[in-house]
Amino acid sequence: MSQKFYIETLGCQMNVLDSELACSALLQSGRLQTDVSTDADVILFNTCSVRQHAEDKVYSAIGRLKGWKNEKPNGILGILGCMAQKDQKLIFQRAPHVDFVLGPGRLDFLVETIEQLLGTQPRPVKTADVSLRRTTNGHAEVLESFRQYNPDRMIPETQKTDSVLVRITFGCDQFCSYCVVPFVRGPEQSRSPHDIVNEVQHLVDQGVTKITFIGQTVNSYQYQQTRLADLLYQVADISGIEQIDFVTNYPLDIDDYLLQAVRDLHQVSKHLHVPAQSGSDNILKRMNRHYTAAQYREMTDRIYATIPGATMTSDFIVGFCGETDADFEQTVELVKYCRFRNSFIFKYSERTGTKAAELYADDVPEHEKKYRNNRLLEVQIEISRQQTGER
Ligand code: SAM
Ligand code: SF4
Q: For residues 189 and 183, what is the distance between their CA atoms, to the nearest angstrom?
């Protein structure tokens, strides 16, 4: 009888795509997917470590699987994704019933790892296959250890869809001071346009009409001379493609060449997600975001002026280290000025290993973070409501 696997995904679109690719690889290896975790022979958690809350959720979900492991001692429990890379063997200390951890840069070893574990009795020692630490190894070795994961994508008959995610960049080199992503996802790498176009064609052949290009700073895509705008032109040429989106944009890399491509290609959505994070120059500097609020406003003006009918969304972090009432009010002003269709607002969560954790005290009290979160949300909801009324 075929083995069954169950996979639970937490976090962002990167993880949604990684899980989809992992499922595709496991299905092609002859295993069956189940929606009922306790029926599975292999349970996988694809995890997120951007905020503490996401990690806490994973540890409590893993804890609840102790009973399953007691009943099915041959069952395999694997932790994938950013938390696997960040916590590595610490996961075995906190949850001894976990069999293996696999970082996001090692996912192409997933099937092999499971097969090794299933085929060996008694079980070998627990395996932690993760990429090298960026801070303590040379660039070339680190890059080599964060492997691109692009298995053949077969959309199962039962999961037919017309809309898919396609990764065009891996990793991130921005090192925003609060963020763990550059450490757990590794150096920024752009995929070759040839591979991307082939993958899109392969997906179109399976009935896909809408694609979303994803990358941590998707608009900094560059492969030799090819930039994101060039890629949009190439993919828009594929017969059958009706809609192209791309997330997430880095403000300083929104250039006129890209905006003109968005304006001129009817397949490309006239919507841009460009996280601002804060409206205060002091805080942006501490966040290591490399732009000022005035530059962000100027970019917004350019987007609205170049692309008729354009809409925008943004991300904000409230309660970052040292954020005063006056800093926060500048964020409120920025939201009002930019008239986002929506904003995703997060309370700052200190992450071990980041510059912010090293340099600054997490000194905004929790109740104040909550207040600022709610206040900014109210401002945004009112702007969103007015826009819905205008349409
Ligand atoms: N690369 C994208 C970018 O630059 O916007 C998104 C990366 S991150 C997964 C998504 C959002 O999480 C960020 O835009 C930021 O607002 C938020 N975030 C990242 N680190 C955080 C932290 N330590 N505490 C709270 N929110 C955080
Ligand atoms: Fe994190 Fe900044 Fe990179 Fe986004 S751009 S993933 S927030 S370091």
A: 14
pLDDT winner (highest mean) among 2-6, 135-139, 282-286: 282-286
Ligand 1 pocket, 65 CB below 6 A? no
Q: How many CA atoms lie within 13 A of 304 on its CB side?
A: 13
What is the distance, to the nearest Å, from the Cα of residue 51 to the centroid of all Cα atoms in its chain? 12
Pairing of strands 42-47, 76-81: parallel
- Amino acid code (one letter) for 107: L
List pLDDT tens digits, range 295-308.
999 999 999 999 99
Cα 317 to averaged position of ligand 2 atoms, centre (Å) = 12
Q: What is the dihedral of CA 216, 219, 222, 226, to 10 degrees?
A: 140
Atom of ligand 1 nearest to the CA of 354: 23
Question: Could you read off the pLDDT of 183-237 as tens digits, one per residue?
Answer: 999 999 999 999 999 999 999 999 999 999 999 999 999 999 999 999 999 999 9
pLDDT over 90 at 175, yes or no: yes
Q: Distance, CA 216 to ligand 1 centroid (Å)?
A: 10
CA distance 376 to 332: 6
Nearest to 288 by CA among 173, 176, 172, 181: 176
Distance CA 220, CA 96 (A): 41
CA distance 98 to 202: 36
Centroid of ligand 1 to alpha carbon of 382 (angstroms): 23
Give residue-wise pLDDT tens across range 277-323: 999 999 999 999 999 999 999 999 999 999 999 999 999 999 999 99
Antiparallel, parallel or unpaired: β 271-273 and 311-318: parallel
Determine if the pTM surpasses 0.90.
yes
